[in-house]
Write a structure and sequence with these properties.
five-stranded parallel β-sheet, 10 strands, single chain
């Protein structure tokens, strides 16, 4: 699953100090009834971007069609920035009556289904033809679907963690806005990735070309708001301790909450690092919940509970383990069943957990995740390949990267000239003896030739074979998302 829920606010995390940006979103929503509006919510990790947007979306859950997506760091699925949003649109249509479905579905639904297989759930149409023509018709079909839905209720699309999106998917969002379909598009990103992420650079280009577009630079909470937040979370703290928490957190909402909960046992020991607090809490929990947490952290995406348990060798899941993870704000789950999903509470939690894993444990867990995920019916081969590579299983990774490249080729995705800018491995493949001669294999439109090269004994037996295969995949995914990543895999 690509997308999912944004990080929701919890009852123990009061919403303070964000009236102005919330009003900005409300104004954008009103304006989007007549034309497309783009809002980019940007801020440092932990400042409260997802909580702000979740609060806004909750206010409009009944009076708007809300479609949410989230980009995960390791994924390289085509049109990554839009894939989960289309899934959301499909879910709306799937719940509709036959008359509503007939009124909403676009004429070129087959083209949309070719780009986004989930659409096949709600249409029997299919379409073939040159990829560029199919892509153009798919954009028009998507615009028509949004426009038709908008005749009943306004449409709001939210894409979170866009810094991990793909340039091709972002450009597709721009083309959707260019059709002038009434729509509110809200994207969120980490400020730390500004100028470094191809997806964010593409979004900046779109924002400059599109009117109206609004940039919400989410600042750190001011002293008054931070004090109110700490007081609501830890009402028994004395004024001196509250002032210490506010000073140490420097307006970061996530850090404020963590420090407020820990302040009762912390002394005035000087600067406190959030990562150190999180690592301390991880080390304090029992073995079973910690193992589940480690699996989710390395997967860097929501995991079915049954898959996480199997990967770490648990035959049963103690409900208390989930209670512990939720109570300690280390993970969140959609429910207690094996099919329900578990994910880390925040990316900072994920990063802290991964940092605690010894290299041998990390490799072993990546290998276990690869074997366990392989049993799922619709797992992406590049996700498995990334886990095999992180586990040091290069031959398995090479085969899966090539399989992923073939899937992309069958979907009509072609190498783009922009790919080399997104990844150093994208513009050429150097493997085996070719690396020494510095001879590059051109990628564009030659997947068959490249596969034959990579399967030669001289290349396949060399250590670089998996990297060469990963380069093929990167070049086949439109827009150049860069090589797939899982937590702790490679720089």
């Amino acid at each position: 699953m690509l997308g999912g829920r944004a990080a929701e606010p919890t009852a123990s995390a009061p919403f303070v100090g964000r009236d102005a940006p919330l009003e900005t979103l409300a104004q954008a929503f009103a304006e989007s009834h007549a034309r497309p509006v783009l809002v980019h919510v940007r801020g440092v990790s932990g400042v409260g971007k997802s909580t702000l947007v979740a609060r806004f979306l909750a206010q409009h859950a009944r009076d708007a069609w809300v479609c949410e997506g989230r980009c995960f760091e390791q994924e390289t699925v085509p049109w990554k920035a839009l894939d989960a949003v289309v899934d959301g649109l499909v879910a709306i249509v799937a719940r509709a009556t036959p008359d509503e479905r007939a009124a909403w579905m676009p004429e070129a639904a087959g083209a949309l289904a070719r780009m986004f297989p989930a659409v096949a759930r709600v249409t029997d149409q299919s379409e073939s033809g040159p990829p560029d023509e199919v892509r153009a018709r798919a954009v028009q079909a998507l615009s028509e679907l949004v426009r038709n839905l908008g005749k009943t209720k306004p449409v709001v699309v939210h894409v979170d963690d866009l810094q991990w999106g793909d340039e091709g998917g972002v450009r597709l969002l721009g083309e959707l806005l260019a059709t002038q379909v009434p729509l509110l598009l809200v994207v969120g990103s980490r400020a730390e990735y500004r100028g470094r992420s191809p997806a964010l650079r593409a979004m900046d280009d779109i924002a400059r070309a599109h009117t109206p577009s609004v940039l919400v630079e989410l600042a750190r909470l001011d002293e008054a708001a931070a004090t109110a937040l700490v007081g609501a979370i830890a009402p028994t703290l004395d004024a001196a301790r509250v002032a210490w928490v506010v000073r140490e957190a420097e307006g970061n909402a996530f850090f404020l909450q963590e420090l407020a909960r820990a302040a009762g046992r912390l002394g005035d020991t000087g600067p406190v690092r959030l990562d150190a607090l999180l690592r301390e809490r991880v080390c304090a929990i029992d073995t079973a919940p910690r193992a589940l947490l480690e699996a989710c952290a390395l997967a860097a995406r929501p995991l079915p509970l049954g898959i996480a348990a199997k990967a770490v060798g648990l035959t049963t899941i103690d409900p208390d383990a989930l209670v512990t993870l939720r109570h300690e704000r280390l993970a969140r789950s959609t429910g207690p069943s094996l099919e329900d999903e578990l994910e880390t509470f925040h990316d900072r939690v994920r990063e802290a957990v991964v940092a605690l894993l010894p290299p041998e444990r990390r490799r072993g867990l990546h290998a276990a995740l690869a074997r366990t995920l392989a049993a799922l019916p619709a797992v992406e081969p590049e996700a498995l390949a990334a886990h095999h590579e992180a586990a040091g299983e290069r031959d398995e990774a090479r085969v899966l990267y090539l399989r992923a490249a073939e899937v992309a080729a069958r979907a009509g995705l072609r190498a783009r000239r922009a790919v080399p800018r997104a990844s150093p491995t994208a513009g050429s493949v150097r493997c085996g003896p070719c690396r020494g001669a510095r001879a590059a294999h051109p990628l564009a439109h030659q997947p068959g030739a490249l596969r034959r090269r990579l399967r030669r004994r001289s290349c396949g037996a060399r250590r670089g074979g998996h990297r060469a295969a990963r380069g093929v995949l990167t070049a086949r995914v439109a827009g150049g998302a860069g090589p797939p990543r899982v937590a702790g895999a490679w720089p």
